[in-house]
Design a protein that fits this description.
Layout (H helix, E strand, L loop, with lengths): L1 E2 L2 E2 L16 E2 L27
Antiparallel strand pairs: 1-2, 1-3
Length: about 50
């Protein structure tokens, strides 16, 4: 997980809080399958997404 250029390892069953307007991304490392649940408040909007 990367939040505002700070990289963190996220383990199974961990929760991460991302404050509003923070740039963030998540990716799988190694051979593991990545699955995650996003809970957004206020609701998510496509206009908030920047793909790189």
């Amino acid at each position: 997980m990367e939040i505002e250029e700070e990289k963190r390892e996220v383990l199974k069953d961990q929760a991460i809080l991302i404050s509003p307007m923070q740039r963030h991304r998540i990716k799988s490392i190694g051979d593991c399958d990545l699955r995650f649940l996003c809970i957004c408040t206020p609701p998510y909007s496509d206009r908030d997404t920047v793909l790189e």
